[in-house]
User: What shape does this take?
Amino acid sequence: METSLPYIVSVICAAIAGFTSYAVARKQTKADIQKLEKQYELDIEKEREKFAMEKEKMEIEHRHQLELLQKESENTLGASVTNTLISEAMKMPEVRQQFSQGLRNGSKRKK
Assistant: This one.
């Protein structure tokens, strides 16, 4: 037994060192995993905020484009209605006569 005692002590010391190393490594791994999870949560929250801001920006741009299209349509409609009214009015002989008379009177006043 005396000859195997140093081997037994060595094995026990190695086993204790092994279990201790395992416990420390496991504890460190858990801490690292918790840090990574926290960082991932922060990254995900950051990306959500970025997405929300980009979405809001796109919605504002879309509303602006719709307003521009609406104003352009209103201007086009107003211009076409005015052109139609003037062209229809110029087809009437009374309106042509008044227009010609107004031009003559305007040119006489300038002289």
The chain has a mean pLDDT of 88. The chain has one domain: 5-110. The CA atoms of residues 45 and 51 lie 10 Å apart.
